[in-house]
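Lecture 7 notes: from sequence to structure.
We start with the chain below.
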Amino acid sequence: MLAIFSEVGFTDVVIEDTSQYSFDGKKIIKFKKELFAMHIPDGYLSPQTDAVLGLVSALGLSVGARKASQSVRAKDVPLLAIGAAFSFTIMMFNVPVPDGTTAHAVGGSLLAILLGPWAAMLSISIALIIQAVFFGDGGILALGANIFNMGIVLPFISYFVYKLVATKSPAGSKRRWIAAAIAGYIGITAAAVMAGIEFGLQPLLFHSVTGVPLYCPYGLSQAVPAMLFAHLTVAGPIEGVVTVLVLRYLQQSNPAFLEDDQSARDKAPLSWKRFLPWLAVLVVLSPLGLLASGTAWGEWGGEDLQSQLGFVPQGLGKLGEFWKHVLLPDYGIAGFDQSFWQQALGYLLSALLGLILIALIAWPLQRIWRKKKG
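Predicted C-alpha coordinates for the same chain:
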Protein backbone atom coordinates (compact mmCIF):
# COMPACT_ATOMS: atom_id res chain seq x y z
CA MET A 1 0.00 0.00 0.00
CA LEU A 2 1.29 3.48 -0.87
CA ALA A 3 0.73 6.36 1.53
CA ILE A 4 2.10 9.82 2.02
CA PHE A 5 3.48 10.96 5.38
CA SER A 6 2.12 14.45 4.86
CA GLU A 7 2.41 15.47 8.50
CA VAL A 8 6.04 14.53 8.90
CA GLY A 9 7.34 15.43 5.47
CA PHE A 10 7.60 11.99 3.85
CA THR A 11 6.43 10.97 0.39
CA ASP A 12 5.90 7.58 -1.25
CA VAL A 13 6.49 5.48 1.87
CA VAL A 14 5.39 1.88 1.59
CA ILE A 15 3.43 0.74 4.67
CA GLU A 16 2.99 -3.00 4.97
CA ASP A 17 1.03 -3.00 8.25
CA THR A 18 -1.61 -0.27 8.46
CA SER A 19 -3.43 -1.58 11.53
CA GLN A 20 -2.05 1.13 13.83
CA TYR A 21 -2.76 4.03 11.50
CA SER A 22 -5.83 5.97 10.38
CA PHE A 23 -6.05 7.15 6.83
CA ASP A 24 -7.86 9.96 5.09
CA GLY A 25 -7.26 9.24 1.47
CA LYS A 26 -3.50 9.30 1.14
CA LYS A 27 -2.87 11.21 4.34
CA ILE A 28 -1.91 9.57 7.59
CA ILE A 29 -3.88 11.50 10.19
CA LYS A 30 -2.75 9.50 13.21
CA PHE A 31 0.81 8.56 13.98
CA LYS A 32 2.17 6.69 16.95
CA LYS A 33 4.05 9.07 19.27
CA GLU A 34 7.35 7.87 20.71
CA LEU A 35 10.46 9.38 22.26
CA PHE A 36 13.77 10.07 20.58
CA ALA A 37 16.99 9.00 22.29
CA MET A 38 19.75 11.37 23.34
CA HIS A 39 22.26 8.58 22.62
CA ILE A 40 21.89 8.42 18.85
CA PRO A 41 22.57 4.89 17.47
CA ASP A 42 24.31 4.19 14.19
CA GLY A 43 22.09 4.34 11.12
CA TYR A 44 19.76 7.09 12.28
CA LEU A 45 22.02 9.79 10.86
CA SER A 46 23.52 9.82 7.37
CA PRO A 47 27.29 9.31 6.95
CA GLN A 48 27.48 12.94 5.81
CA THR A 49 25.84 14.13 9.04
CA ASP A 50 28.07 11.86 11.11
CA ALA A 51 31.16 13.19 9.32
CA VAL A 52 30.29 16.86 9.81
CA LEU A 53 29.41 16.49 13.48
CA GLY A 54 32.39 14.21 14.00
CA LEU A 55 34.72 16.85 12.58
CA VAL A 56 33.15 19.59 14.71
CA SER A 57 33.46 17.45 17.84
CA ALA A 58 37.05 16.48 17.04
CA LEU A 59 37.99 20.13 16.66
CA GLY A 60 36.14 20.94 19.87
CA LEU A 61 37.96 18.19 21.77
CA SER A 62 41.29 19.38 20.40
CA VAL A 63 40.66 22.92 21.61
CA GLY A 64 39.18 21.60 24.85
CA ALA A 65 42.26 19.50 25.63
CA ARG A 66 44.49 22.53 25.08
CA LYS A 67 42.29 24.82 27.18
CA ALA A 68 41.93 22.28 29.97
CA SER A 69 45.68 21.59 30.06
CA GLN A 70 46.22 25.31 30.67
CA SER A 71 43.63 25.66 33.43
CA VAL A 72 43.55 22.26 35.13
CA ARG A 73 46.50 21.23 37.29
CA ALA A 74 47.90 17.71 36.99
CA LYS A 75 46.85 16.88 40.53
CA ASP A 76 43.27 17.80 39.59
CA VAL A 77 43.08 15.33 36.69
CA PRO A 78 41.39 12.80 39.02
CA LEU A 79 38.55 15.33 39.29
CA LEU A 80 38.08 15.04 35.52
CA ALA A 81 37.95 11.27 35.94
CA ILE A 82 35.41 11.59 38.76
CA GLY A 83 33.38 13.85 36.48
CA ALA A 84 33.49 11.27 33.68
CA ALA A 85 32.56 8.50 36.12
CA PHE A 86 29.67 10.56 37.49
CA SER A 87 28.36 11.28 33.99
CA PHE A 88 28.74 7.62 33.00
CA THR A 89 26.79 6.29 35.99
CA ILE A 90 24.10 8.98 36.10
CA MET A 91 23.21 8.22 32.47
CA MET A 92 22.45 4.61 33.47
CA PHE A 93 19.52 5.78 35.60
CA ASN A 94 16.56 5.68 33.23
CA VAL A 95 13.49 7.49 34.52
CA PRO A 96 9.91 6.98 33.25
CA VAL A 97 8.41 9.65 31.01
CA PRO A 98 4.62 10.25 31.10
CA ASP A 99 4.21 8.88 27.57
CA GLY A 100 5.52 5.46 28.62
CA THR A 101 9.12 5.86 27.48
CA THR A 102 12.27 6.79 29.43
CA ALA A 103 14.88 9.55 29.77
CA HIS A 104 17.97 10.26 31.86
CA ALA A 105 20.16 13.06 33.14
CA VAL A 106 23.71 13.62 31.87
CA GLY A 107 25.41 15.54 34.67
CA GLY A 108 27.03 17.89 32.18
CA SER A 109 25.64 21.04 33.77
CA LEU A 110 27.19 20.25 37.13
CA LEU A 111 30.56 19.43 35.58
CA ALA A 112 30.53 22.68 33.59
CA ILE A 113 29.84 24.73 36.72
CA LEU A 114 32.50 22.99 38.82
CA LEU A 115 35.24 22.31 36.26
CA GLY A 116 34.47 24.77 33.47
CA PRO A 117 32.91 23.92 30.09
CA TRP A 118 36.13 22.76 28.42
CA ALA A 119 37.03 20.28 31.14
CA ALA A 120 33.39 19.18 31.33
CA MET A 121 33.45 18.49 27.60
CA LEU A 122 36.43 16.16 28.05
CA SER A 123 34.84 14.30 30.98
CA ILE A 124 31.52 13.76 29.20
CA SER A 125 33.25 12.74 25.97
CA ILE A 126 35.28 10.08 27.77
CA ALA A 127 32.07 8.68 29.25
CA LEU A 128 30.32 8.70 25.86
CA ILE A 129 33.23 6.97 24.09
CA ILE A 130 33.30 4.18 26.68
CA GLN A 131 29.52 3.78 26.51
CA ALA A 132 29.56 3.45 22.73
CA VAL A 133 32.61 1.18 22.37
CA PHE A 134 32.04 -1.26 25.24
CA PHE A 135 28.30 -1.15 25.90
CA GLY A 136 26.65 -0.18 22.61
CA ASP A 137 24.97 2.85 24.19
CA GLY A 138 25.10 5.26 21.28
CA GLY A 139 26.66 4.56 17.91
CA ILE A 140 30.30 4.55 16.87
CA LEU A 141 29.59 6.43 13.65
CA ALA A 142 27.24 8.74 15.56
CA LEU A 143 29.76 9.34 18.34
CA GLY A 144 30.60 12.79 17.00
CA ALA A 145 26.93 13.75 17.08
CA ASN A 146 26.51 12.49 20.64
CA ILE A 147 29.63 14.32 21.80
CA PHE A 148 28.42 17.47 20.07
CA ASN A 149 25.00 17.33 21.73
CA MET A 150 25.89 16.15 25.23
CA GLY A 151 29.56 17.07 25.43
CA ILE A 152 29.55 20.50 23.78
CA VAL A 153 26.07 22.00 23.57
CA LEU A 154 24.95 20.88 27.04
CA PRO A 155 27.92 22.05 29.16
CA PHE A 156 28.50 25.30 27.29
CA ILE A 157 24.86 26.35 27.33
CA SER A 158 24.62 25.39 31.00
CA TYR A 159 27.79 27.26 31.90
CA PHE A 160 26.77 30.50 30.24
CA VAL A 161 23.24 30.35 31.64
CA TYR A 162 24.68 29.77 35.11
CA LYS A 163 27.05 32.73 34.78
CA LEU A 164 24.27 34.93 33.41
CA VAL A 165 21.87 34.17 36.26
CA ALA A 166 24.41 33.95 39.10
CA THR A 167 26.20 37.17 38.04
CA LYS A 168 28.54 38.23 40.86
CA SER A 169 26.50 36.77 43.71
CA PRO A 170 28.34 35.29 46.72
CA ALA A 171 29.39 31.66 46.38
CA GLY A 172 27.12 30.55 49.20
CA SER A 173 24.07 32.52 48.12
CA LYS A 174 20.63 31.24 47.19
CA ARG A 175 21.02 32.85 43.77
CA ARG A 176 23.82 30.41 42.94
CA TRP A 177 21.78 27.26 43.35
CA ILE A 178 18.81 28.83 41.58
CA ALA A 179 21.17 29.61 38.70
CA ALA A 180 22.40 26.02 38.79
CA ALA A 181 18.84 24.66 38.54
CA ILE A 182 18.00 26.89 35.59
CA ALA A 183 21.29 26.07 33.88
CA GLY A 184 20.74 22.34 34.23
CA TYR A 185 17.20 22.55 32.91
CA ILE A 186 18.04 24.72 29.91
CA GLY A 187 21.33 23.00 29.08
CA ILE A 188 19.99 19.48 28.69
CA THR A 189 16.87 20.75 26.90
CA ALA A 190 19.04 22.61 24.39
CA ALA A 191 21.02 19.42 23.76
CA ALA A 192 17.76 17.52 23.23
CA VAL A 193 16.52 20.09 20.72
CA MET A 194 19.79 19.80 18.83
CA ALA A 195 19.44 16.01 18.67
CA GLY A 196 15.84 16.43 17.50
CA ILE A 197 16.96 18.73 14.69
CA GLU A 198 19.60 16.21 13.62
CA PHE A 199 17.00 13.44 13.57
CA GLY A 200 14.41 15.57 11.81
CA LEU A 201 16.67 16.79 9.01
CA GLN A 202 17.44 13.26 7.82
CA PRO A 203 14.22 12.53 5.85
CA LEU A 204 14.35 16.02 4.35
CA LEU A 205 17.93 15.75 3.12
CA PHE A 206 18.49 12.03 2.59
CA HIS A 207 15.83 10.00 0.82
CA SER A 208 15.40 7.85 -2.25
CA VAL A 209 14.23 9.19 -5.61
CA THR A 210 10.68 8.30 -4.57
CA GLY A 211 11.03 10.13 -1.25
CA VAL A 212 11.50 7.15 1.08
CA PRO A 213 13.74 8.12 4.05
CA LEU A 214 17.13 6.43 4.05
CA TYR A 215 17.98 7.01 7.69
CA CYS A 216 15.85 8.41 10.51
CA PRO A 217 12.28 8.19 9.17
CA TYR A 218 10.82 11.02 11.25
CA GLY A 219 10.77 14.68 10.27
CA LEU A 220 11.30 17.85 12.26
CA SER A 221 7.63 18.18 13.23
CA GLN A 222 7.87 14.81 14.99
CA ALA A 223 11.45 14.70 16.23
CA VAL A 224 11.80 18.07 17.92
CA PRO A 225 8.51 17.93 19.90
CA ALA A 226 9.26 14.35 20.97
CA MET A 227 12.70 15.31 22.26
CA LEU A 228 11.33 18.41 23.95
CA PHE A 229 8.55 16.54 25.73
CA ALA A 230 10.84 14.10 27.55
CA HIS A 231 13.38 16.72 28.54
CA LEU A 232 11.00 19.50 29.50
CA THR A 233 8.98 17.16 31.70
CA VAL A 234 11.53 14.68 33.12
CA ALA A 235 15.20 14.88 32.10
CA GLY A 236 15.42 18.67 32.47
CA PRO A 237 14.07 18.77 36.04
CA ILE A 238 16.30 15.83 37.02
CA GLU A 239 19.39 17.49 35.56
CA GLY A 240 18.51 20.65 37.48
CA VAL A 241 17.92 18.82 40.76
CA VAL A 242 21.15 16.81 40.51
CA THR A 243 23.10 20.00 39.81
CA VAL A 244 21.52 21.81 42.75
CA LEU A 245 22.05 18.98 45.23
CA VAL A 246 25.79 18.79 44.61
CA LEU A 247 26.15 22.58 44.50
CA ARG A 248 24.32 22.93 47.83
CA TYR A 249 26.62 20.29 49.31
CA LEU A 250 29.68 22.27 48.21
CA GLN A 251 28.17 25.52 49.46
CA GLN A 252 28.05 23.94 52.90
CA SER A 253 31.36 22.06 52.82
CA ASN A 254 33.67 24.06 50.55
CA PRO A 255 32.11 27.36 49.37
CA ALA A 256 35.49 28.83 48.39
CA PHE A 257 35.72 26.34 45.54
CA LEU A 258 32.67 28.00 43.99
CA GLU A 259 34.27 31.43 43.93
CA ASP A 260 34.73 33.09 40.56
CA ASP A 261 38.28 34.14 41.45
CA GLN A 262 40.70 31.37 40.51
CA SER A 263 43.16 32.30 43.24
CA ALA A 264 40.44 31.79 45.86
CA ARG A 265 39.58 28.42 44.33
CA ASP A 266 43.24 27.37 44.42
CA LYS A 267 43.32 28.02 48.15
CA ALA A 268 40.39 25.62 48.68
CA PRO A 269 41.12 22.62 46.44
CA LEU A 270 38.39 20.07 45.96
CA SER A 271 39.58 16.59 46.87
CA TRP A 272 38.39 13.93 44.45
CA LYS A 273 38.51 11.36 47.24
CA ARG A 274 35.50 12.85 48.99
CA PHE A 275 33.34 11.90 46.01
CA LEU A 276 34.34 8.23 45.94
CA PRO A 277 31.71 7.11 48.51
CA TRP A 278 28.98 8.91 46.58
CA LEU A 279 30.18 7.34 43.34
CA ALA A 280 30.10 3.92 44.99
CA VAL A 281 26.49 4.56 46.03
CA LEU A 282 25.58 5.41 42.44
CA VAL A 283 27.17 2.19 41.22
CA VAL A 284 25.29 0.08 43.77
CA LEU A 285 22.01 1.81 42.92
CA SER A 286 22.53 1.72 39.14
CA PRO A 287 20.22 -1.33 38.64
CA LEU A 288 17.34 0.94 39.63
CA GLY A 289 17.59 2.23 36.06
CA LEU A 290 16.13 -1.12 34.98
CA LEU A 291 12.86 -0.43 36.77
CA ALA A 292 11.78 2.23 34.29
CA SER A 293 9.68 0.54 31.63
CA GLY A 294 9.73 1.65 28.03
CA THR A 295 12.37 2.29 25.40
CA ALA A 296 13.71 5.62 24.23
CA TRP A 297 12.58 6.42 20.73
CA GLY A 298 15.50 6.45 18.32
CA GLU A 299 17.15 3.40 19.87
CA TRP A 300 15.11 0.84 17.95
CA GLY A 301 16.71 -1.77 15.77
CA GLY A 302 15.58 -2.79 12.32
CA GLU A 303 13.05 -5.36 13.58
CA ASP A 304 11.41 -2.75 15.80
CA LEU A 305 11.03 -0.29 12.93
CA GLN A 306 9.72 -3.03 10.67
CA SER A 307 6.98 -3.84 13.16
CA GLN A 308 6.13 -0.17 13.73
CA LEU A 309 6.38 1.28 10.22
CA GLY A 310 6.27 -1.72 7.94
CA PHE A 311 9.68 -0.89 6.46
CA VAL A 312 13.29 -0.32 7.46
CA PRO A 313 15.10 2.68 5.94
CA GLN A 314 17.79 1.35 3.63
CA GLY A 315 20.69 3.30 5.10
CA LEU A 316 19.64 2.56 8.67
CA GLY A 317 19.52 -1.14 7.88
CA LYS A 318 23.06 -1.07 6.51
CA LEU A 319 24.67 1.03 9.25
CA GLY A 320 22.64 -0.07 12.24
CA GLU A 321 24.95 -3.00 12.99
CA PHE A 322 28.20 -1.22 12.16
CA TRP A 323 29.87 -1.98 15.53
CA LYS A 324 29.58 -5.62 16.59
CA HIS A 325 32.33 -5.77 19.22
CA VAL A 326 30.33 -4.64 22.24
CA LEU A 327 31.53 -6.27 25.45
CA LEU A 328 28.35 -5.91 27.54
CA PRO A 329 25.52 -4.92 25.17
CA ASP A 330 23.00 -2.55 26.77
CA TYR A 331 24.85 -2.94 30.09
CA GLY A 332 23.95 -6.62 30.30
CA ILE A 333 25.44 -10.07 29.97
CA ALA A 334 24.35 -11.74 26.73
CA GLY A 335 22.15 -14.75 27.49
CA PHE A 336 22.05 -13.92 31.20
CA ASP A 337 19.12 -11.53 31.32
CA GLN A 338 16.10 -13.68 32.09
CA SER A 339 15.31 -12.07 35.43
CA PHE A 340 15.67 -8.68 37.08
CA TRP A 341 18.51 -9.95 39.27
CA GLN A 342 20.42 -11.27 36.29
CA GLN A 343 19.99 -7.92 34.55
CA ALA A 344 20.98 -6.13 37.76
CA LEU A 345 24.22 -8.10 37.88
CA GLY A 346 24.95 -7.02 34.32
CA TYR A 347 24.28 -3.41 35.27
CA LEU A 348 26.60 -3.60 38.28
CA LEU A 349 29.38 -5.19 36.24
CA SER A 350 28.93 -2.57 33.53
CA ALA A 351 29.12 0.29 36.01
CA LEU A 352 32.25 -1.14 37.60
CA LEU A 353 33.88 -1.81 34.24
CA GLY A 354 33.06 1.71 33.10
CA LEU A 355 34.72 3.22 36.17
CA ILE A 356 37.79 1.00 35.76
CA LEU A 357 38.16 2.06 32.12
CA ILE A 358 37.87 5.73 33.10
CA ALA A 359 40.57 5.25 35.75
CA LEU A 360 42.82 3.55 33.18
CA ILE A 361 42.42 6.56 30.90
CA ALA A 362 42.96 9.09 33.71
CA TRP A 363 46.22 7.55 34.98
CA PRO A 364 48.33 8.04 31.82
CA LEU A 365 46.56 11.35 31.19
CA GLN A 366 47.75 12.64 34.56
CA ARG A 367 51.33 11.54 33.81
CA ILE A 368 51.22 13.37 30.45
CA TRP A 369 49.78 16.43 32.18
CA ARG A 370 52.63 16.45 34.73
CA LYS A 371 55.27 16.22 32.02
CA LYS A 372 53.73 19.13 30.11
CA LYS A 373 53.62 21.21 33.26
CA GLY A 374 57.31 20.46 33.71
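Points to note: Confidence is low (pLDDT under 50) at residues 1-35. The CA atoms of residues 184 and 240 lie 4 Å apart.
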